[in-house]
Amino acid sequence: MSAHDKLQKGIKCFDNKKFLESISFFDKVLDQDSGNMEALLYKSDAFYEIKDYDESERCIDIILKDVDWDDGNEKRNRVISSLFETKANILLQKKEYSKALECIEEIEYHYPNSLQALLTKSLIEFEQGNSKESLITLEHIEKISGYSVDVSVLINKATVLSDLERYEEAIVCAEEAQKITPTAVGFVAIGNIAGWLKRYEESIE
Q1: Torsion of CA 35, 94, 185, 43, to 10 degrees
Q2: What does pTM read for this prediction?
């Protein structure tokens, strides 16, 4: 079986959430072609899905070791940015916040207003206990996006405002997010905030 066929079988397993089986196929691809970036990326994602963050990070590092930013190649730079974003999320899961921020800073140097990188930055700041800094980052996202409503930003902002005990503002953000896209996370946020505001009937509902 060719490396291409093995890669396709691995991707099919991955899409069907058979992550361990997919990893075995990606390993076979890499035995034949050690620099196969697509196999490494899928392998990293598969390890991430099974919460093996060390192995997931190792796959990303193999790719990053052989790539450099190129000011003349926008497509290449977007791929590199995506790799650093993935690594930042891995490090966030591992609670290695300083290293995660270094990845975000690498992206910001080339893409100062990358919305996804900024959103990840706000999460890292919050996890570090820097709620005020996290709020500043979220408000910056709103500003550069023209204050267009984004559900993930609103939910994160509600969480940060709650941590700062600004509950009235927090519940407005959470309710606004629910109007756009109702989610279980949104309902939990509203329930918690309503409870802190002693609006118990609303919280139960």
Answers
A1: 20
A2: 0.80
Contact 178, 185 (CB under 8 A): no
Residue of 184, 183, 131, 137 lying closest to 162 (CA atoms):
131
Condensed to tens digits (0 to 9), the pLDDT of residues 86-122 reads 999 999 999 999 999 999 999 999 888 888 899 999 9
CA-CA distances (angstroms) from residue 139 to 115, 145, 154? 11, 10, 10
Give the per-residue pLDDT at 25: 95
Tell me, what amino acid is at 2?
A: S
C-alpha torsion 122→126→129→134, nearest 10: 40
List CB contacts of 164: < 8 A, sequence separation 6 or more.
131, 132, 135
Output Rg (C-alpha) for the chain, integer angstroms.
20
Query: Rounded to an integer, what distance in angstroms lies between the CA atom of residue 203 and that of residue 196?
Result: 9
